[in-house]
Amino acid sequence: MRRFIFGEDPASANDYHGIVIHELPDITMDNETPMPLLRDIYAIRNTSFDKILDFHNDILFKKWPPFYMVFDYTNERTFTDMMIRDFGEDRVEKVNFTAGTSGTKLQLKQDGLSILKQGYQFPNPAKIRDPKKSELVRELVEELKHEEMKLTQSGRESFDHPTGRHNDLGIAWELSIHGCISLGLKVDLPGNYSVGQISEQPEINYAM
Known about the structure:
This protein is of the alpha/beta class. Helices cover about 35% and strands about 20% of the residues.
């Protein structure tokens, strides 16, 4: 059974609705630590939730039947609640980044670093057939490279992005990776791996 894991950052004011879909391969004797494969990516703006829901039902769910979905539930909750209504709480996970839960966001960052350290590979934009998808993959990598961690006055970690940039795709990617780990993907600690070491891998050809 193919397992497609959705990570989504629903749109709030002036932001994009980011969608990143991974496929989590089955574990076999020759593939004891399978790496998630990025199967699709979207950044949708200025669209009603009803239209985004139709886009999921009419296109995404037919192409990539969802096995598990993880949503940012911090600022915009309407769309996530619609997914829970249609699929149930056992297949939809809500992640809340509100004050007092920075550990949740830190864990997402650590999960992302862990999977990169273990050999996760981004598709090479030059080998993606769809120029829009190619640009979105480039943007995703740039967003992850430019994420900033700051300490608040109380000494807690706070994550943000530089002025003029977005982080919707980066959050969607981290949520999808988190979903893969929730389903049993084994990861090591991040160690000394740096986000700045992210690069596209030319040997993988993704037909997006």
